[in-house]
Structures are given as structure tokens and as C-alpha cells.
Amino acid sequence: MARKNSSEHHQSQADAIVVGTGVAGLAAAETLARVGLQVILLEARDRIGGRLWTSRTGDGHPVELGAEFIHGMPPAMFRRIAAARLRTREVTGDMWRVEDGCWSRFDRKFGEQEEILSKMPERGRDLSFAAYLKRRSPPVPAELRPYLMEYISGFHAADPKKISVHSLAQGERASEEIDGDRQFRLPGGYGMLVEAMRARLPAGRVRLQLQTDVEKIAWGRGEVRVTARNGGQKKEFRARCAVVTLPLGVLKANEVEFDPPIKSKRGALRKLEMGPVIRIALHFRDRFWAKLRPPGAKNLGRLGFIFSREKWFPTWWTQWHDPVPILTGWAAGHRGRQLSGRDPEFVLARALESLGRVFGFSPQHLRSQLMAYFVHDWQSDPFSRGGYSYAVAGGNGAFRELARPLKGTLFFAGEATEFNGHNGTVNGAMDSGQRAAQEVLSELQRRKIMPSEKQRTAARRNIKKAAAAARRKRTVAHLPKSTRTALGKQGAKAARRKRAA
């Protein structure tokens, strides 16, 4: 039987394996590697970022295909943004409601919605949002109920007849703690933050494998074997533990086999759902809407958001502070589901129909002004299987259940494991990655596998000394193999020179 060469065998082993390179996986990998652990980072796609995906227009303007907004001012997120020297821009502009061709400012209705949402209970019997509206005392005004149902379906990508009121109340409270009524964008796109996180992965400590589709995770106490497929070839990776950041939709679809099965997670998976989302960005020749004066609106120059009751795309937003002529359409919940699996041209046609009715133009006219469009079906994407998570009635504790480690070996991260009210957000995913990494470190320290702080400091000092000596002698071939390995590429090159000699 053919034997693997020693270098390939060495590369397939590590202290920890992280599955997935969304912000949860990137945060976990960085945290583990910065204390000296060797990490293998596996990603099925040909890119990093997961459900953060920034495309570009022909003139280079960023267009988000996934998450776009920063909700509130989460401290950890803003620290990372500051460390990467990136800028944020607060989302402002006017909000409008369009019904039967008539425009009205939405600010008052939005305030009334917020007042009702802020009084949802976190305790007592958990109900679905729809059931809560029916039983609420005092009753919700009849004219507000459709707006509230649309909000739950659109913002949370959830079925109002399913989503847990307790989870919504916890989310409202968590949002309030970080000024969640404010929203921000990264002018360069979320892709800039993703690349900044990649750049922070310690060289020589993290081995990133793209286009590596994990098929099986075999695990037992203190040992993990991950089988994946890369370019038609099977590969096996081994480690003491693994951080699994697979999206909820992928876990629910059993896309990855666990051996033994993770039976203790089945209850949590039944209580959590993946909200369907389709978004489309339309790049026009100019900002034609700024010149319009539709009934009820004297000036759309500061147009920020449009809310309607359109069948396909009820919500639209601009980037009014930017001169770029892009309108983004949002279809979530049941609307996202009815668009899933459709051809992109079908989605575009429905978007133009919806937008045409909002502005009073024919779809043909809008198409004639269109330069490009951008759309991605996250439900049909086998590596996401949906937009983001929500809990069904009675399932608010499922986020914590899904996050709970198994036998000190399997650890779980991702937005669906964030149990403090920030599920479904980028900052929630990021925080979950750091939380899972800290759980790994605590377990390794408990097993006395992790080196002490004194030992880690001494190791870093010795590596720096060796690097300085190598620079003076312009070679590291004379150094011990362990030190060359720690020095990364320089050590490997020197080793090859030594073998050649």
C-alpha cells in the first residue's frame, strides 16, 4: 500500500480544525492560532467570507450579495473595524411607505411598531408572534397588524406564525443595548473586513484550504478526523478538536455526516429555522428617482428605504449618500421562498415589475435604464441553505443548545449559535467564533495540553531570536527542524536548499 510522504501527513494534522470561513470561522481560527495552536481552516467555496460576499460594479463600486448592514454599535465589531483602519458610514435617509401608488412618510408608523415590539414578553408561555398579536392586551390596533407582520417576515426573514416571541423580545433588548436603532455600512463593502480578518491569521499557524468540501466528521473524546473532497480527491485531516461553523441550513439538511451522530443537537435543530432571503441589486444609468415627484412625496432626493405590499419585492433601499445609482430589492420570508430556485432572469423580471409599480414605470422602461444586476439564491446555495436563523415558539433556548460543546471535542459557532439575542447578525457570528475558541482553549488547558503562558512567552522569544540569527546568516538550514517549522516559509526554503546540497 502506498504511503503518504511525511510532509503531506504533517500538513493534515493540527491542534484544531475549523470548518467554515465565515466571520465565525475566521475569528475562531485567529483566536486559536494567536496563542500558538496549529489550525487547519477548511472552506468548501473558492472564497472566504461565507454569507458575506461583496461583488463589484463595472466601475468598482461594492455591491453586497449577502449581509450589508452593521446593526447598532457592537463593541467587538467596531474594534475589528478600527484595527483594520476601515471606515463606517451611518445609514440615513428618508423612509417611505407606498400603497396604491401614494407615498407617505413611514417614520410615524415605524415609531408605533417599535413601541409595540419593545413590550413583547421574555417570560411566561412562549407564543408565535402571530398568536401573540391576537392575544395581546391591550389589543394591537387593526391598522398596525399588517405592518407588524410584514416587519417580522421582512426583517427577521421569519414566518410570523412560527417565530418565538421570547426570542424576538430578547433580540429587541439586546439590540437596544448596542443602539440597534442605528445602522451602518462599510463603504468598501463587507469584503474589506473579511480580507482584514484573513490578513490577521498568524502566518505559519493557520493552513487555509479552499474548495475543500467536508463530507464527514468522525469524532471521539480528544480526537477528530475530518474527511473532505478537494478537486475530486478525498483528504483526511486530524486534530484534537474541531470548531464547526456550518450554517444552520446545512446542519438541518444533514449535508455533513457526523460519526457518531450528534443526537443531542437534534432537538435544537428542530426548534430553529433558516429564514429564506432573496436580494437583488439593480445598477441603473442614473439616480432617476431623485427627480421624481410621486403623489404624496415632494422630494425623493433623500430617499433611503421604501416599504410596500408588493407581492415579490416589497422593500427597497438606496445608497443616497453615495452618487452610485443602485437600488437593492429585498424579498424575505414567504416571498424569499417563492423566489428560491428560480432562474436569475425570472427574479429580475419580478423585481422590475415590483419596482415599476412603486415608481409608476413600466418594467420595459426600467430594463432600458438598467446597466447590470446582481442576485444570489442563498436557499439553493448548498453551502448555506438559507439566509439566517430564527427560533420557533418554545425554542428560544435552542441557540444555546446548539452552541453547547460535545465531550470537549466538538465546538460550535456561527450566527445560529449566538444565544444573547444577536443571532442572524454578522456581529453575532463573529462573537460566537471567539466564544467557541475560548471554549477550546479552556478545554485544552483543563487537559493540560495547552502550554503555560510562561512557556508560550519563552517559545515566542526563542523564535524571534532564531529569526534574527537567520537574517544575519541569510539561512536557517543549520537550525533544528522544530524551529524551522515555526519560522514557516523561510525554514521550509532553507530545508530544501540543505537537501539539494
- What gap, in angstroms, lies between the N and C termini? 31 Å
Question: What's the helical proportion of residues?
Answer: 25-40%
Instruction: Report low-confidence residues grouped into runs of 5 or more.
Output: 1-10
What structural class do helix, strand and pairing data support? Answer: alpha/beta
Please give the number of β-strands: 23
What gyration radius follows from the Cα positions, in whole Å?
25 Å
Q: What is the overall shape?
A: globular
Mean pLDDT: 90
What spatial order of strands do you see in the largest sheet? 8-7-18-19-20-17-21
Largest sheet: 7 strands, mixed
Task: Report the total helices.
Answer: 18
Strand content: 15-25%
Description:
The structure is a single chain. With 501 residues, the protein is of the alpha/beta class. The chain is built from 18 helices and 23 strands. The strands form six sheets. A seven-stranded mixed beta sheet has the order 8-7-18-19-20-17-21, sandwiched between helices. Helix 2 (23-33) packs parallel to helix 15 (426-446). The chain starts with 5 loop residues before the first helix and ends with a helix. The relative contact order is 0.16.
For this entry, give a set of tags.
alpha/beta, seven-stranded mixed sheet, 37% helix, 23 strands, 501 residues
Produce the secondary structure layout.
Elements lengths: L5 H6 L4 E4 L3 H11 L5 E4 L11 E3 L5 E3 L5 E2 L3 H9 L5 E2 L3 E6 L2 E4 L1 H11 L11 H7 L9 H11 L9 H13 L5 E3 L4 H10 L6 E4 L2 E9 L2 E8 L2 E7 L1 E4 L3 H5 L4 E3 L6 H6 E4 L1 E8 L18 E5 L7 E3 L8 E7 L1 H6 L4 H16 L3 H6 L1 E8 L10 E4 L6 H6 L6 E3 L13 H21 L6 H21 L7 H6 L2 H12 L1
Parallel strand pairs: 1-2, 1-14, 2-10, 7-18, 11-15, 14-23
Antiparallel strand pairs: 3-4, 5-9, 6-9, 7-8, 11-12, 12-13, 16-22, 17-20, 17-21, 18-19, 19-20
